[in-house]
Each structure stands twice: as C-alpha cells, then as structure tokens.
Write a structure and sequence with these properties.
The structure is a single chain. This protein is 43% helix and 11% strand. It has two domains: 33 residues; 255 residues, Divalent-metal-dependent TIM barrel enzymes (TIM Barrel), CATH 3.20.20.150. It contains ten helices and seven strands. Helix 4 packs parallel to helix 5 and helix 8 packs parallel to helix 9. It is globular and about 50 Å long. The N terminus is likely disordered. Helix 5 links the parallel strand 3 and strand 4. It is α/β, with parallel strands linked by helices. Strands 2-1-7-6-5-4-3 form a seven-stranded parallel sheet.
Length: 293
C-alpha cells in the first residue's frame, strides 16, 4: 500500500500530541517528579513571568527542582534566597523603558546602576541588567554614540566592584506587551556587540535572550559561538509566543544548550517563558528537566 506524505505527517503530528499529552498527565499525577541533577547548566528562574506565583513561592520551587537561582529581584529578597541556598544570578535595575540611547535618561540610569552594583558587590550577586531604551526618532549613529557614552560611564564602577553589567537585546518585531518592544534601540545582536566593543570593558557584556535573538536573527548557535566572549547571561522562552520551551515551538533547546557549554560558558541560563499550561508549576518542572542536559 502506498502511503501519502500527508498521511505520514498527520500520523507524526498525532504521535507528537500524544507524547505531549501523556507527559503532562504523568506530571500532573506526580509520576514525573524531577530534580535537576547533572549540574552542567546553572539554571535560574526569572520572576515577573511566573506571576501570580510570589517570589518566595518561586524560590521554594527552585530548591525543589534543583534550580540554583532566582533573578531580577530586589535586594530586599536576597537574604531570603541566601537562607534557601539560592543565588540571585542577575539583579534588576532601571527597567527597559529607559536607557542609554537617550542622553537625558543617563543620569537616572547611572544612579540606579551605581547603587545596584554596590549592593551586588556586597551580597555576592555577579551581574546587573541594563537596557538601551527606545530610539524615539534618533538615528542609529546618534543612538549608538549615546549608548556607548553612557555605558563608558558605568564601566569603571562595574570594574571596581567586579560586577558585570549586562545589556539586554530585545526584539522590536512583536507588538504584544512583554513579548516584543517596538522601537527598542538594541534590537540587533550585531549592533549590540559593536557597542560593547566600543565600550571596551570586560565587565560590560550582553544578555543573550534566545527568544529575542531567534525573532530578530535566527542563527542562534552561530551567534552565541561568534560572540561567546561578550555574553554575560542567557534567557530562554519558546517562539512563537514567549511560552513554554516544549515541543510545541520552534527553538530546539538541547543543542543550543550543548553549544553554550562548548563555548566554555559557566554562568546562568534563566527561564523567562510565560506559562500557558493550567498549572505553571508543571511547566517550570518540564523546563528544568529539559535544560538539565
């Protein structure tokens, strides 16, 4: 009997759905409880995307799943994390709405970053996030010069305290709240790296968000290998949708994680997807297991 290409694809698709469904059922029944044990990837949980889970709730889940860090939380939460044996891999700062592309925002961003860097140094937090902010009609050349100038001001403070400032690249294509940021200036990894090269500090690097890079460029593995010396931190999420990093989306995370390890990276990879499963705890557990390569 002849088998059509369509029937083969339909059968494969149904099989894939069955596997996903069975996996969710086993997880819901507690049959697939998993604690990350390989230790090759240092995992972290971002917090904003897992609401209504509170930061203390998320921290306890991190311990339960063998995840080492909770990040983008304020210093008021760091003692609680320490008590649980967790790190804060990446501190929050001034938020993405403002940044170094706009000269009139430099003073505010620098003030927040300087304070946070000092707090990080005192509490053993290795890095703090920063942003370019939005273009707002500026030319690429002007926004680039402004961003370089602003980062050069914070670089000596970061170097003094040995705390890395991580400039995040965000996608500007997706016009959905917290899934994309139209008009964001550093929406290009190549441009972001050129800015870092001009700043010239080992303590000013890039936050490589795999979801955002996939949307703007693709070629994730090529770029992370090319720019390995400039990468301070990684974030995950599935595309399209910024949802679970499971088999329903297009990014193949296991080989990406292997490529990250091959570069010699020893920092953190943080889960920043927005759950769609009825129980976000199950989604967290699935992600922790997938990244425990």
């Amino acid at each position: 009997m002849k088998t059509s290409r369509r029937s083969v694809l339909q059968t494969a698709a149904l099989a894939g759905v069955s596997v996903l469904t069975a996996s969710k059922v086993r997880a819901a029944e507690g049959g697939d409880f998993y604690v990350a044990r390989n230790g090759r990837i240092n995992q972290s949980f971002v917090t904003w995307n897992f609401r209504p889970l509170t930061i203390p709730e998320l921290a306890k889940l991190a311990v339960k799943f063998g995840v080492k860090s909770i990040e983008l939380v304020g210093p008021e939460h760091w003692p609680m994390l320490k008590e649980l044996g967790l790190k804060c891999a990446l501190a929050g700062s001034h938020g993405f709405a403002k940044g170094f592309a706009q000269p009139d925002q430099h003073a505010e961003c620098l003030k927040v970053l300087e304070q946070r860097i000092e707090q990080c140094a005192a509490q053993g937090v290795p890095s703090v996030i920063t942003f370019s902010g939005f273009r707002k009609g500026l030319t690429v050349d002007d926004a680039t010069k402004n961003t370089i100038a602003g980062l050069k001001k914070i670089a000596p403070i970061a170097e003094k305290h040995k705390v890395t400032v991580a400039l995040e690249m965000l996608n500007s294509k997706v016009n959905v709240e917290m899934k994309g940021h139209p008009d964001y200036f550093c929406d290009d990894m190549d441009l972001s790296i050129r800015i870092l090269q001009a700043v010239g500090s080992p303590y000013v690097k890039v936050l490589f968000d795999i979801y955002h890079v996939q949307i703007m460029h693709g070629d994730v593995i090529t770029r992370l290998r090319q720019y390995k010396d400039f990468i301070a931190h990684y974030h995950t999420a599935g595309n399209p949708g910024r949802n679970e990093i499971d088999a329903t989306q297009e990014i193949n995370y296991p080989p990406i994680l292997e490529a990250i390890l091959e570069t010699g990276y020893t920092g953190y990879v943080a889960q920043e997807f927005i759950p769609t499963w009825d129980d976000p705890v199950l989604a967290l557990r699935q992600a922790a297991q997938l990244c425990d390569i």
